[in-house]
Every structure is written in structure tokens, then in C-alpha cells.
Amino acid sequence: MDKIRVKYLLSATVILLFAQMVLGGGTSRTAYFPAAGDSVQTPSRADSIRPDTSVRPPFITPSRREARRQNRRNAAFNALSQQEKDSLFSAQVDSLVAQKADSLKTDSLATDTLHRDSVKKPRPAGAFLDDPISGKNTDSLVYDVRNKLVYIYNQGDVTYQNSNLKADYMRINMDSKMVYAYGKPDSLEGKAIVTKPEFTEGSATYQMDTITYNLNSKKAKIKGVATQQGDGWLVGGSVKKMPDNTINIEHGKYTTCDETDHPHFYLAMTKAKVIPGKKVITGPAYLVMEDVPIYFLGIPEGFFPINMGPKSGLLMPTYGEEYSKGFFLRDLGYYFTLGEYADLAVRGGIYTLGSWEASAASRYIKRYKYSGSFNMQYSNVKTGEKGEDDYIKQSNFRIQWTHSQDAKANPGSTFSASVNFATSGYSRYSATNLNDILSTQTNSTVSYSKNWAGTPFSLSANMAISQNSQNKTISITLPTMVFNVSRFYPFKRKEKTGKDRWYEKISMQYTGKMTNSVTTTESEVFSKETLENMKNGIEHSIPVSASFNLFNYINLSPSVNYNEKWYFKKVEFEWNPVTNQTDTLPTNYGFYRLYNYNFSVSASTTVYGMYDFTKKSRNRKIQAIRHTLTPSFGFSYAPDFSDQKYGYYKTRQTDSTGRFTTYSPYAVNAYGVPSSGRSMSMNFSLSQNLEMKILSKRDTSGVKKIKLIDELRISGSYNFLADSMGLSNIPVSFRTTLFNNFGINLSLTLDPYRVSPEGKRYNKLFFPGRVVSTGWSFGYTFKSRNDRTETAINDITSIPPEYQNPFYDPYGQLDPVMRRQYMAQSYYDFSLPWNFGFNYAVNYSISYTNNGTTGYRKNVTQTVGFNGSLNVTPKTGITFQGGYDIKQRKLTTSSVSITRDLHCWQMSFSWIPFGYHRSWSFNIGVKAASLSDLKYDKSQSMYDNMY
Fold first, then answer.
1. Mapping DSSP to helix (H, G, I), strand (E, B) and coil, where does residue 801 land?
2. Which of 136, 299, 501, 779 has the most C-beta neighbours closer than 10 Å?
3. CB-neighbour burial class of residue 455 (10 A; exposed 0-12, middle 13-18, buried 19+)
4. If we measure between CA atoms, which residue out of 873, 868, 938 comes closest to residue 902?
5. Are 662 and 642 in contact (CB under 8 A)?
6. How far is CA 228 from CA 254, 292, 307, 837, 885, in A?
7. Contact 395, 388 (CB under 8 A)
């Protein structure tokens, strides 16, 4: 019986061992590699995203032999560096998948695969991918060999070719080559959030809720994606990404608000297709603002360009109403890209009461060569009823051209242009910029210069036009040319030995000028009289001078100046006894040569005076004061060129009483005539400055120099050959800098002779003299920050002049780029709390008149200008500018603007409360340029006050 019992016990033991072997061989062989610090005995995930038994393989209690093998693997894995752990992922995926199907019958994991080097050995046939896949994480990697799945937990980062995926949970199927990823719940500053996977392919980056990505076909199915395209964001509920990176979206949103989880506004799209870097094409779509759908603002289909470079296309118009011109549709046009270096925008507008306008604007640039722009605007203005007093019909135009050349493009020669030519009525009826409206003077110049390296020769030429819109006069210079030979020493020896001889210090120069100019009115520019009234001529100037030092302290400079003028016409006058008036004889054309010369000598020196405060104590705050005086005296002589032997002057009868006067027939030319009357005069000047040296801890030398007076200068001259009143007026100038960026400039002219009550000066000196004219100004800018790296509309120290328009496009002709930049957040800096600037200017002059008392009349003008900005709240700012005329006791043209930052929108209100340009405007619109036409405007045009 005992034998039978033992027999049964042995049989049961064998059966149990066999069952154990069979059951152990049937379980899935799972390789689990925890990160450093993880324990093999705790494979369960306490921080898993969601319970999913189908995704995470169950943990099987291993046998003792399997546990020992697992412990050896864990010990070897933990001994590796983090870089080796990351690269192991790629090696393990290749090696595990490349096994044959029947290799699982043997315990392939029994071999220590940690020491394999897949880089050194060639990849076997049928490998998982074409290129290595690398990954890393902060928690663990789990390999399910039987199901060929890889699991990555916590901050996983997988890179394959040019694609990268970051997520807190990833599952990779090695059979289907599919990658599935999603985020996990977390908290940030006490708020519950859900991390989102981030997928990058090339330069495109996507954030989403979940993603399923095929490594082979590069297709992806994404839920809850948000990607930036241009200056907008695309948010899709269900998205399919194709291999060429095009995106098909269902139930998507397009917005320029960067709060993509809950945007303030968006365009709800039932379906859309995105071609990255080019365009977005949508099906039926409608606008949603603050979660309120606005269906009547829907569109059947849409097209949004998202390319960053320029492309040809339609320019959208604006519409509205003006009291004097009626309803309008303007700014409709087309934008052309003319190759890589130029573009062109053509626009037009019409009004219901008969006015119309057209414009063309072009820009061109070639890097390291040149750049410029050309603008032409034409308007036909018609207001009022024909036959009425307020009827106006006129045509206005303006041409602007700017051109600049890179200094390195053509060394030795430069060409530049700054043209601003307009009809006088343009600023009154067609201008949109406040500076253009208030400007009465416009100037245009085109210039060219050339110098020859290694020689003293240089050439310059320019054309200029100056216009006055008040009196409609035009001054034209076509052209002015100057040829110059810089200073040279004709007697200097080529090989110098010893000291310079006196004649070697003699220097010469040459300047040749040619000009042709005329002053006329707009209506007579192309008339015959304008051509006849042109002033032209050629002038040669040759100064010869030298400089000597006397007694080591006095600089003596003698000089001789020779000038010669070539003219081609003269005009003479003759008394007509029949009409008892002077007749102008016909112009005589020919070649006429005039010359003059003069002699001069000057002497100057410098005198220093210093008081040292450190003689008694070296620790005094004020170390020393230095006073510098620079006196200068000169003597000049010029003969009388009105002598008949020169033939420059003639006499003519002026009235029937027989009075005669002297005139020059050559006065109608460009460079005038030599002076009449002999001149022998002495000129003098005294310049001085005052400096102080103080102790300073900020300076590395320990002391700092301060200029108390930058310059105090007085000068004048005395003519010894004058019959009376030989002393000239005395100009005085004063300049000082009180502290950084704040200085005072003062200049005045003194008349040393007395004046009678009838306004006649007479030969009697008095001290210090009468102030004939003076003018001085000062200003300062107070600001709350010094950072000027980015210009802003409210930063008065950095705002460009073209952005100083105090109203928002009430006339609709502002450049669209300028208009959008004006509305962009980058041009109103809310981080600048405040800034304020002011300037004060005063001008004083007198005019002699017979008033029976003083003999002269005072003319005084004083103006105060101010501008600045203030942020009343973190998102609300006020900008202002204006001025005050003290003499008239009234404000000059002033404006106030209020701007409110609405995150992705911006609202502004501008107001010119009084004056000739009284107006207001209100605007609320999207900041981004791609949706700049999504706005609301309401304004009262300043042009309604002009008729």
C-alpha cells in the first residue's frame, strides 16, 4: 500500500511539473525595460492616462528561472548611460521584428541581447523601417514581443527621418507601422489641464488631442488639432494629413486668436483643405464671435492665402459716404508681383456725385544694389452744383519717388532721389496724412555724385523743385553741376628734406559751378515766359591761401580769391520820353565774362585760463574750471567793380525829373554781379567756452568733464571806406547743454546805431545795441522707458512720420500696409506706461517804420507744441498731440486718439475737436493682416468741413 501511495505521489508530481512547463510556455513573452530607478516588481501604472487592458499588456508572474534572467537584464540595462538607453530603442525594434516566426519556439530572450550592436552588423532582410527610429522618455519603455507592440510612457520623444512626435503616451505597432499617441491629465498653477501631443514634420508643427500616424505612408488621422498657418490658426475637430502635408479638415475653425482652445472669434468651417504655405480653401462657413454664431455673415466658400511672400491678387475696396461727394466705392484694385525685385498696386475709386480717383504704387529693391518706391495719385474732384458759389471742379495729382543706392554697390559714385511733387490743390482736397494737409512747402531733389579715387577731382549734379501751395509758386533748378578740385600744394617738393619752406605752404583749390533756375507759377510752368526768365550761368572760383605760425601762438592766414562768371544774356533799360517810363529792351544773347577778386588776411589764437580747486583739498567735488577764449581778426580789401572800366554797371533815368540810378544788365543771371563800391574792412570774432571737471564714481578715470557753456560767440566787421555807419550788425550766439538730450540754442542780431522816430538809422552808436532779430527754441521728451528696439505708435521718440496720422483713414487712400501696421499691436506698445514731449519756440524781429516814437515795430511769435501718450489701464491707451499759439491765444491743430487692446482685435477712436480739419473716426477690427477687412468703420470726414 505504501508503494502504491508513493507511486501515485510521484505520478502527481510529474503531472504538476509537466502542467507547469506547459502553462509557462504558453504565456506571452514580454520584455519590460523600466527607466533608472524603477522596480521590476512594480510594473503597474498608477499614473496611466486611462484604464485600457487592451492597450497595456497584463503583468504575468514569472518563474524563478525567468525572474533570474529578468533581473540580469535589468541590472545590465540600469548600468547603461541615458544615451545608450535611448539608442537601444532603435536596436531592439530592429532585432525583435526581424526574427522569423518560428524563432519564438526557442527562448531568444535567453541570449543577452543587450550586447548586440545593430549598427555594426548589416540590417537583415525584412527590417521594420527604412531608417533608424530613435526615442527617449522619462519613465519606461515596454516591448510586447508576441503582439509586436511598443509602449512609451511620460514625455516620450520619438524621431523618424524628418518627423518627430512628443507625447506622454505612445503605442507603436510594428506590424502595421502605426503610431498612436495622446496626452495625460495634469495640473498647472493649480488648474487642471491635459497635456497634448506635438507632432512635427519638416517645418510644420501640430498640437492635437490624439494622433494615429503611419510611418510608412506618412498619413495621419488627428483629433482636436491646432496648427499655425501664416498669421492665423487652424483648429480641426477631425483631420486627415496626407503624405504631401496637405490637410483635410472636418468641422474646423480658422482664427487669428492664439487662444486656440477657446478663441474669441473664428470662422466655423464645415470642411476645408489646407495647402501649407499657400492657401486654405473652405466650404460653407460662418462667423462665430464669443461663441455666438452669426449665420448671416456666412459664406458659401472661402479662400485664404497663407503664403508669407507677395502674390498677385485682388485688392478689396472700401465703401461709405461723404457729405460733399456722396456715396463712394474706393481702393478697389489689383496687386501685381513683378518678379523678385518689384511689385505694383493699382487702385481706383468712384463717387456718386461725379468725383473719381486713381493711384498706382510700386516698390523695387535689389539687395546690395539699390531700393526705392514710386507712387502716383490722380483725383478729379467735383462738388456742389454747377453755377453755384460752392461749385468746385478741379484735377489734382501727386508724384512721389524715392531712390537710394547701397554704398557698396558702386564705390565712388552715388545716385539718390527724393521727389514729392503735387498740385497746390492736392493738400486741400486729396491729402490723407495730417502732415501733408498742414504742409505748405514741398521739396524734390535728384542728385548724383562722382569722385575719382586717388585724384583730387569730384563731380556732383542735382535737380531740385520747391513748391508753395499757398501762393502756387514753383522754384525749379534744372540742373546744378559742381566740379571740384580739392586743396593741393603746387609748390610742395616731391622729396621732402628738412622743414617746409614758406612757399610750400601755399595751397590752391578750384570750384566750377553751372546752374539753370527759374521761379514761376503752376499755370505758367510750360510757357514761353518761363523759358525766357530762366537764370543761368557758369562760375569759376579759385582761392589761393597759406597758413603760417607766428611766435608759436598766432596763426596767420593770407588769401587771394579770384572769381569769374560766364553769362549768356543781358537785359538793358531805356527811358521813353513819350510814355514817361522806363522800357525794357529786348534781351541780348551772347557770351559775357565778368570777374572779381579780393584780398584778405586773418590771425587767430587760443587763450586758456584755469582755476584749480585741488590746491587746498583733493577731495573737493569740483576739481577745476577751464575757460577757453578764441579771438580772431581779419582784414579784407576789394576794389570798386562799378567803375566804368569794368563795364558791369550802367545808369538809367527813372522819372521825368531827371533822376538817375545805377543798375547792372547782368543782374538777371544766376550768380549776380561783382559788388559795387570799394571795400576795405576789418572783421572780428570772439568765441569762448567754459568747462568744469568734477569727481565721478561712474567714470573709470574718477573724474568727469562737464561743459557749462558749449559756445558763446560774438562777431562783426567795420568798413573803413564807408561814408558813415561803417560798423556792421553784431550777431551773437549762445549754446549750452544743461543735461542729457536737453540744450538751449540762442541767437540774436544787434544793431549798434540809433534810429529816428521816422524809422531812419543815423550815425550814432549806443551800447549794447538794439535787438533786430532773435530766435530760440528748446524741447525735451520725458519717457518711462529707454528701450526703443521696437517702434510703436505711442512712442513719440520712435514713431515714423508717416504713422503720425491722428485719424483712421477717413478718406480711404492710406497705403493698406500702413493702415494694417497702424492697427497692429506691435505699433501700440502697452508696456510703455507714458511719455510726454514738448517744444517751445520764440521768434522776435523788428521792422523800421515811421510811427513817430520808436521808429520800428516789433514782431513776436511764440508757439508751444506737445505730444505724448498715457496708458489709463493695462489695455487702454491715449495718444495726443497739439500746440498753442501764445500770440493768437488759441490752440493749433490738435488730436486725441484712444486705443483699446481686445487681444486679437483692436479698437480705436480718433478725434480732431476743432479747427479747419475737424473730424472723428471709430474703428474696430482684427489685428492680423490676413483678416484686416474684418472690421467696422464709422467716421466724419474732415473734407466735409472744407466746402
1. helix
2. 136
3. exposed
4. 873
5. yes
6. 10, 24, 12, 40, 52
7. no
- 33 and 137 in contact (C-beta within 8 Å)? no
CA 256 and chain centroid, separation: 24
Burial of 383 (0-12, 13-18, 19+ CB in 10 A): buried
CA nearest to 856, candidates 729, 753, 722, 767: 753
Q: Which of 38, 56, 213 is nearest to 143 (CA)?
A: 56
- Other Cβ atoms less than 10 A from the Cβ of 379: the count is 21
> How far is 432 from 436, CA to CA, in rounded Å?
7
Distance CA 554, CA 135 (A): 84
Residue type, 695: L
Cell 479662400 -> residue = 303
Residues 314, 323 contacting (CB under 8 angstroms) = no
User: Do residues 156 and 132 make contact, with C-beta atoms less than 8 angstroms apart?
Assistant: no
**CA 444 – CA 476 distance, rounded (Å):** 10
What does each C-alpha distance from 101 to 57, 106, 118, 150 come to in angstroms? 21, 11, 20, 18
Strands in 174-308 per DSSP E: 178-182, 185-188, 191-194, 198-201, 204-207, 210-214, 220-229, 232-241, 247-255, 265-275, 279-282, 285-289, 292-299, 302-305
Length of the chain: 947
Indicate the helix (H) or strand (E) that contains 885. Answer: strand 876-885
- Please name the residue that has the C-alpha cell 461663441: 291
* Residue 261 grid cell: 482652445
Q: Which residues pair with 466 in a beta bridge?
A: 443, 475
Q: Residue with C-alpha cell 489701464? A: 873
DSSP secondary structure, 293-332, as one string: EEEEEEESSEEEE--SS---EEEPPEEEEETTTEEEEEEE
Could you tell me if 447 and 416 are in contact, meaning their C-beta atoms sit under 8 angstroms apart? yes
Give exposure, 692-729, as e/b (b: 16+ Cβ within 10 Å): bbeeeeeeeeeeeeeeeeebbbeebbebeebeeeebbe
Structural contact between residues 140 and 35, judged by C-beta atoms closer than 8 angstroms: yes
How far is the C-alpha of 376 from the C-alpha of 360, rounded, in Å? Answer: 5
- Whole-model pTM over 0.85: no
Q: Which three cell numbers stand for residue 292?
A: 455666438
Neighbours of 141 (CB within 10 A): 23
Place of cell 614758406: 502
Asked if 360 and 345 touch (Cβ cutoff 8 Å), the reply is yes
Residue 590 CB burial class (10 angstroms; 0-12, 13-18, ≥19): exposed
Cis omega (within 30 of 0) on the bond before 768?
yes
- Dist CA 163 CA 158 (whole Å): 8
Cα gap 750→772, rounded to integer Å: 6
- Cis bond upstream, residue 586 (ω within 30): no
Residue bearing cell 514729392: 420
Q: Which amino acid is at 919?
A: S
Sign of the dihedral through C-alpha 812, 815, 820, 826: negative
Placement of cell 515714423 in the chain: 800
Helix, strand, or coil (residue 38): coil
Bridge partners (DSSP) listed for residue 52: none
Look up residue 234 and give its three cell numbers.
487652424
Q: What is the separation of C-alpha 891 from the centre of its chain, rounded to a whole number of angstroms?
A: 31
Q: Over the range 325-336, which residues count as b (16 or more CB within 10 Å of their CB) and which as e?
A: beebebbbbebe
Q: Do residues 220 and 179 touch, judged by C-beta distance below 8 A?
A: no
- Average pLDDT for consecutive 10-residue bins of the chain (947 residues)? 50 51 42 39 34 40 60 59 49 41 36 39 51 76 83 85 86 87 69 76 80 87 79 82 86 85 87 81 88 84 71 81 82 89 92 91 91 92 82 88 89 91 79 64 91 92 89 89 94 85 93 94 86 92 94 92 95 90 91 95 94 82 92 94 91 87 93 90 94 82 84 93 89 82 82 92 90 83 59 52 36 38 47 80 90 89 85 86 83 84 86 78 81 77 58
